[in-house]
Amino acid sequence: MNRSRPPLPGPDGVPPNPSRLSRRALIAIASGLAVGGAGVADVLAHDGIRSVVDVARLPGPTQPQIYSCKAWGARKATGSMTELDKRPSKILIHHTATRNRDNVGPDDLVVLAKAIQKFHMVNEGWIDSGHHFLVNRGGLIAEGRHRSLETLLGGKSFIEGSQCTDYNDVSIGIENEGTYSEVYPPAKQLVALRSLCAFACLQYGVEPGDLYGHRDYRDTACPGDRLYAMLPALRAQVGQLLGRATDSLASAPLTWPLLRIADRGPAVLAAQHLLRAADVPGVPADGAFGRTTADGVFEFQRRHQMELTGMIGGGSWPLLAVPARLGQGGEVDAALQALMARPKVRSFRLPATVSQVTWQRLLGGAG
Q1: Final residue belonging to a domain, choices 241, 276, 306
Q2: Which residues are CB-contacts of 117 (< 8 A; sequence separation ≥ 6)?
Q3: pLDDT tens readout for residues 4-45
C-alpha cells in the first residue's frame, strides 16, 4: 500500500513537496506574482459569519462588469468549446491558492488571468482555462474559459469547463484569487463574488442554495476553510438580491465533511471503519487521522483513479458511504455505531436502509 508515500497536504490541501504540488499551488510558481498581504477591513458580523454588508441594504441584481477573454488578451484555445444546450444547476466556488496580494488593479488581473490560463493549458493539457470566471482580490472579474460570458448573457446554455471532475457538465466554476485557509477574502472581492453569483443565478435559474464549494464534490480543501465558512452568508445575500427569503438559505445544504491529517473524532473513526470495509489494509480504528490513515486514503484514491490528496471530502465520501443497516455487523455497522454514539445523534431514528443522504445527516450531527 505504501509503495509511494505522497507528502501530506498542508491546511489548504497543498502537499509540501514541490515536485507533487497540485495544479492550484503551481499557479503561484508559474505566474511569478508578487508577494503581498491583505486583511479583512470593512468586514462586518452577520449571522455569526463574517460578511461584507447588511443584506437588508443590498440592491437588486444587475450585470457586473466582466473583462472578456478578448479584453484581457487571452491566448487562443487549442480546441473548440463544448457548448451544453442546457442550464447549469450549480455554481462551484474555488480559490486559486495563490499569494494574497495587494496588487489588484486591471493590469494585475491581466497578469493573473494569463498565468492561470497558461498553467491550465501547458501543465494540465486543457484546451483553455478550466474555470468560467475569475474574481481578483480587488473585486475585478474576468471571463475564464472562452465563450463563458457570451453564454451567460444568453442564459440558455453554458460552456463545459474543466474545474471539477464529474461536475463540469452541470456547474459554473468561479475562481477567487488568493488562499483562504486562515484568512477571509477582502470585502471588495466578496462584493464582486456576490454580484456575479446573483447574476448567474438570475440568468440560469440556479437556486441560491445551490452555491457550493469545490470540496463538496472533490477531496480538496478548496476554497479554503474561511471562504467555505462564508458560503451560508453568501447564499443568504444572493437570495436577498434575488428577492428570496433568507431563512432557508443561510443554512448549508447537506454536504460531506472534509477530513484531513490531525483531525480527530467520531467522523474520523467512521471513515476509518469504512476504509477497512473497502478492504484498504493497515487502517487503524482509533478516531485519529494520522499518517497511517492518510496512507489508507491515498491507496483508496489510487484504486479509484482520483487525485491523490490524502483528504476525505466530496470525492471519496460518496464511494465510502455505502448503503447499510444498523446492527448488520462488520466494519460498516461499526462506522454507524461510531456516529450514533454522539449525544446529538442518539435520538435520531435511522431508516431501515441508511442511504447517502442519511450518512450526510449523521456526519453533520443529524441536523
Answers
A1: 241
A2: 74, 75, 128, 129, 144
A3: 677 776 555 554 433 333 444 444 433 334 333 322 222 223
**Set of cell numbers at residue 176:** 477567487
Q: What angle do CA 277, 283, 287 make, to 5 degrees?
A: 95
- Beta-carbon contacts of 207 under 8 Å, excluding residues fewer than 6 positions away, are 201
Q: Please tell me whether residues 208 and 287 are part of one structural domain.
A: no
* Domain contains 24: yes
Domain of 164, in residue numbers:
18-241
Residue 108 sits at φ, ψ, to 5 deg, of: -70, -35
Retrieve residue 310's grid coordinates.
490524502
The CATH number of the domain holding residue 145 is 3.40.80.10
Tens digit of pLDDT for each residue in 250-289?
A: 456 889 999 999 999 999 999 999 999 999 999 999 999 9
* Secondary structure (H, E, C), 80-113: CCCEECCCCCEEEEEECCCCCCCCCCHHHHHHHH
Closest CA to 134 of 175, 181, 173: 175
Q: What is the DSSP letter of 122?
A: I
Pairing type for strands 66-67 and 141-143 reads parallel
Count of Cβ atoms closer than 10 Å to residue 121 Cβ: 18
Say if pTM beats, i.e. exceeds, 0.70.
yes
- Look-up: residue for cell 491546511? 11
Which value, in Å, is the radius of gyration of the alpha carbons in the chain? 21
Q: Residue for cell digits 457550493?
A: 212
Task: Please indicate, yes or no, whether residues 180 and 45 belong to a single structural domain of this protein.
Answer: yes
